[in-house]
Amino acid sequence: MKAPDDRITRRDFFGIAWKGLGILAALEALGFITAFIFSGRSKNNASPKQLLEAGPVDLFGLNTVTAFMGGRFYLARQQDGGFIALSLRCTHLGCAISWEDEKKRFICPCHSSAFDISGEVLNPPAPKALNYYPVLIENGVVKVDIGTLRERNVFRKDQLTYAQ
Amino acid sequence: MHSVFLHLHPLKVNASALRFNRTFGLGGMAALLIIIQILTGILLRFNYVASPAEAYNSIVYLKDQVLFGQFVRNIHHWSGVFLLIIAFLHFLRVFLTGAYRDARKINWLFGLFLLLLIVFSNFTGYLLPWDQLAYWAITVGTTIISYFPLVGESLRTLILGGREVSASTLQTFFTFHTAVLPFLLLVLMLYHFWRVRKAGGILLPESGSKSELLPVMPNLVFREFIVALVLVAVVFTFAALFNAPLLEKANPAYSMNPTKAPWYFAGVQELLMHFHPFFAAFIIPFGVVLFFIWIPFLKYDEPPNGHWFISEKGKQSARYSALFAIIVTLSGIMFNEYILNFEIIMPGLPALISNGILPFIILLLLMAGYYLFVLKRFRLSKAEVVQAVFVFIVVAFIVLTLTGIIFRGKDMELSWP
User: Fold this and answer.
1) ipTM associated with this complex
2) Chain B residues with CB-CB distance to A97 below 8 A
3) Given this model, what pLDDT does residue B114 score?
4) Cβ contact A111–B343 (<8 Å)
5) Which of A62, B233, B288, B299 has minimal CB crowding within 10 Å?
6) Helix B152-160 and helix B132-145, axial crossing angle in degrees, nearest 10
7) pLDDT digits over A82-96, tens only?
8) In what order do the strands lie in the sheet with A121-123?
9) CA gyration radius for chain A?
10) B345 touches A at CB < 8 Å
11) DSSP of A44-64
């Protein structure tokens, strides 16, 4: 009820105060819930450097692809000797691609996207080249950092790693 | 208990509201199926373990070792399938009899939200068996999200709890499926029913509102009971005859061929075969949902009359829209699949233009042409135009979904089932 001179009555004041406190409490609860959920989940995302030893350089012939299903990547050695570790996830909808050796291409069973040995798109609908993991070559041994997934739009030469 | 159930009803009900083909009892069926889902879901939870190592084995144990285990799982599966179909039919019925406007517009929005919750319930439940079907359907389904502009990638990471479907995805989906969503569904469902009562019961045609009032008990309650018995019998029969699918245990290194999203997303997946993901996964679905949200707030010339398809003109234009939708969708799919692929004939252009903007503009031009040359000749009222667009969208969606489910075979190529 309004006082005759339009000032806020005590009852109005407490009405507003209760509403304000209610909104404040709701926001607090929301923040509390968000903080709770996110702090528990962020730990799962942190992925430290994880080196997986693939084998000596000479094990992998030129223009060949070797599957490492445990690490979920294909180690592809290009015609010029460069290495790239391609994620087996198609960039369209995330299905696992497979290597067709006679046609020298990766094929996705979901929407028949195709990629060449460097991960470049041969056939849409895949919009981007395959993601890849950094490759290191130490003392003639090929190692793949499966903790770091790199995204790219197209293939470039500097994504390859060469033996010294 | 008896009187609790009766309190959900008014005391008396209009005689013409009792006719089965007024509502087909769809809202009540959906409510019953939600109750069945909650009851069988509780039973399943006594056996289920939500971890990638154990989930699959716990389902195998359930179906092979637990007495009635397979049967309870089948009921939960089939009643989930029916729930989605019946909620969708309910949505069609409410729109096509005009019960989405005026006093009912807020309830229309709550209905849309309930439909969304039912889709989420199905989607989160899809992952839980942790077999190949579950793993890859959820992988494909959540990757669609990553094509939302700006927030897509982080939203997907948030939902999955990482970059891939993993243990934390399973934990999250399990919590949503068995706690958050059923709670929301139950509360909002009761609110949804209450608002129907508040709007004066279901919408009736003019002539019907003058007919006599009958006591709810036994006239309505007994009818509801019969519908419930028949529905339970149908669900149990399905559960007895057809087993819920269970493939081999999930293998993140190997995709099945073909890999399909859950069946109710087969339409979106079919769109993804023809449009750039930005259009197929974002512009088109969100445009459609915004349209559904928007329609009760348009200014109409006259109040809804409660008749199916509004009028004879409305009926005929709806028929034309359905036919037009079938022709456009089917010929579009065939044309794009066999004759003309914009992305391949125009390799110089970015895919967003050749495979997105260009076909989208062609689609809009076709719809505009249909409006100008066909619909205009009917001299439709605004409500009838909205209805014609609605029918086009729904029929196109159904055609896309059926194509995705039935006619996509190996390598997702068109083929006979």
Assistant:
1) 0.78
2) 255
3) 97
4) no
5) B299
6) 150
7) 888 899 888 888 888
8) A98-100, A105-107, A114-115, A121-123
9) 28
10) no
11) HH-----EEEEEEGGGS-TTE
Closest CA to B178 of B41, B43, B356: B41
- Could you give the dihedral angle defined by the CA atoms of residues B195, B199, B205 and B208, in that order, rounded to the nearest 10 degrees? 100
Q: Name the DSSP class of B249.
A: B
DSSP annotation string for B325-352: HHHHHHHHHHIIIII--HHHH-TTS-HH
| pTM confidence score | 0.89
Residue type, B226: I
Long-range contacts formed by B52-58: CB under 8 A, 24+ apart? B52/B130, B52/B166, B52/B167, B52/B170, B52/B250, B55/B128, B55/B129, B55/B130, B55/B170, B56/B129, B56/B130, B56/B131, B56/B249, B56/B250
- Which residues are CB-neighbours of B417 under 8 A, at least 6 positions away? B406, B407, B409
Give the position of tokens 């470039």. Answer: A156
Q: List the structure tokens of A34.
A: 């968000």
Q: Which tokens hold the place of B379?
A: 């001299």
Which pair of structure tokens corresponds to residue A2?
């309004």
Of A44, A92, A108, which is closest to B168 when you measure between CB atoms?
Answer: A44
